[in-house]
Write a structure and sequence with these properties.
This protein is mainly alpha-helical. Helices cover 68% and strands 2% of the residues. The protein is built from 20 helices and two strands. The longest helix has 32 residues.
């Protein structure tokens, strides 16, 4: 063999990358189970379709367990051969915390979905939900959501974002023959496509200014951008944030949220409120803290304004609906999720002024929010079995009919409001408030304080309704309930056997919320370890 041939062989060998399969195992296993479900659906008879749900739940649980051997947070793969420290996938502490949140949220969504797919129809409605398609789409979206926090280049970030989002469009519109579901899916799709197009334009600007897509190399490139490219780089930074702001439901990119949550199957609304939001915020944190620190003067004020606008729009919109008798509980949770997104943005804005230590507050708040919001949706799913419209009045009498469920729901709402005994909610809000003060954003802290007070009204109103006695007919006797699925009079609850998966979701989230309220400092300590 000649010297040239030997050198060519060595060069070819250097281009072959070794893949750390354990590092990529959580999203890879989730994707593999999704493909398995899709193929199995072709051969499993209709009466055996519940097995697909069991397989999906088991797959998500296994993916969660695969996070345990990665807890050291020091693994990377898909690195450049010439620069081994520049990688496209990194399983650090931040990645593992967000993957825990995402996969845990998907697992609870799967538990809620098992009963929605019972008999091939959504509970309380006549709209079919095809089991095989549902589980494939849910697992596919979860695999993309689990991939995104590990991405360390813009190409992987965009691909992961779209993998998480595209199946969600179909999930929202999966209630065949339902006009609201189809309308919600169309609004979600059109607004998401627009946001993605704007984000891709921003990515192209950043690449043109720096010559790289890897986040660490972008950061180095933006530190020394030629003067003639400075405007292009600043525009790219701003436009890149749009796609992640859309996923995080930040105003003014929030307009898809209320109709989408109401039109989607209830478990998918829960999934979007937690997992989709986690995807948006993890992407936002990655690009701002790792890729764009030198342009904090561009994204810092922008994120601060977004935070103030988002929390105000969400709370005021929820406040306007609260007094009405026909108020939709799911629509309230939708506006509540918009307001909560505003609180989550506060530490990200603070990081532009006081360093990345503030990011731990966002992670801590996201963990609290995920637990209690999924619990609230689990209770809503239980009530929807007898009252598909899910109005505020439908929760009246819940305490007398199901005392433990009512206590859990009251606890979830108080956590979201930041009131005792929801100590973890109070602790998270104080932590976020402190991050704004420490960063010198006193005006943002004032806006947050005002919004927290506004939110107390509708959270406490809902809590009060739960513990009121059931409404009575004009003769003073309790109203008689018609058999499900006939729509019940407002304030009427039907005593039906609660599905075990729904009760398990309520119990798990309630237990986690109580445990975290007993030791809230563990949340912040755990979140602090997720810093880069």
């Amino acid at each position: 063999m000649t010297v040239a041939a030997a050198q060519g062989a060595d060069s070819a060998a250097n281009l072959v990358q070794s893949v750390d399969w354990l590092a990529i195992a959580p999203p890879a296993l989730t994707a593999a189970v999704a493909l398995t479900v899709l193929i199995a659906d072709l051969f499993v008879p209709e009466r055996r379709k519940p097995l697909l749900g069991a397989l999906s739940v088991a797959g998500l649980a296994a993916a969660l367990l695969l996070l345990v051997p990665l807890r050291s947070g020091d693994r990377s793969t898909f690195c450049l051969t010439a620069e081994p420290e520049v990688c496209s996938y990194t399983a650090d502490h931040f990645t593992l915390v967000i993957q825990l949140l995402v996969l845990g949220g998907a697992l609870l969504t799967a538990l809620l979905s098992v009963t929605e797919l019972d008999g091939g129809k959504a509970a309380g409605t006549g709209h079919k939900l095809p089991a095989g398609e549902f589980w494939f789409l849910l697992l596919s979206s979860a695999s993309g959501a689990a991939l995104l926090p590990a991405a360390r280049d813009l190409a992987t970030l965009v691909v992961a974002l779209e993998v998480a989002t595209l199946p969600a469009f179909a999930l929202v519109g999966l209630k065949r023959g339902d006009r609201l579901s189809s309308e919600a899916a169309l609004k979600f799709f059109l607004s998401s496509v627009t946001a993605t197009a704007v984000m891709l334009l921003g990515v192209s600007f950043v690449y043109a200014a720096t010559g790289s897509l890897h986040l660490t190399e972008i950061a180095a490139g933006l530190d020394d951008v030629p003067g003639k490219l400075e405007t292009l780089a600043s525009a790219g930074v701003a436009l890149t944030l749009v796609g992640f702001a859309f996923k995080a439901a930040a105003a003014p990119f929030h307009f898809w949220v209320p109709d989408t949550y109401v039109g989607a199957p209830l478990p998918i609304a829960a999934y979007l409120s937690v997992v989709s939001k986690a995807v948006g915020f993890s992407g936002l944190i990655l690009v701002t803290v790792i890729a764009f620190p030198s342009h904090s003067d561009v994204w810092g004020p922008a994120v601060a304004v977004l935070a103030a606008l988002t929390m105000t729009v969400g709370n005021v919109a929820a406040l306007r609906q609260a007094p009405t008798r026909a108020w939709s509980a799911v629509r309230l949770l939708a506006w509540s999720s918009v307001a909560q997104a505003g609180y989550l943005l506060v530490p990200v804005a603070a990081a532009a002024y006081a360093g990345t230590d503030q990011i731990g507050s966002t992670v801590a708040y996201a963990l609290m929010y995920a637990v209690v919001n999924l619990g609230a949706f689990a209770v809503a799913a239980l009530v929807a079995r007898t009252n598909p419209l899910n109005r505020l009045a439908d929760y009246r009498g819940l305490a007398s009919e199901r005392p433990l469920v009512a206590l859990a729901m009251g606890f979830f709402l108080l956590c979201l409001a930041g009131l005792p005994p929801g100590i973890v909610g109070l602790f998270a809000k104080v932590t976020v408030f402190s991050s704004a003060v420490d960063a010198g954003l006193g005006w943002l802290a004032v806006v947050m304080a005002v919004n927290v007070v506004i939110a107390l009204f509708y959270y406490l109103q809902w809590t009060a309704v739960i513990f009121r006695a059931p409404e009575t007919a004009e003769d003073g006797r309790p109203e008689t309930a018609a058999p499900a699925p006939v729509l019940q009079p407002a304030g009427t609850l039907v005593a039906l056997r609660a599905p075990a998966p729904v009760l398990a979701a309520i119990g798990l989230t309630a237990a986690a919320g109580v445990a975290l309220s007993g030791a809230p400092q563990l949340v912040l300590r755990f979140a602090a370890e997720s810093l880069f």
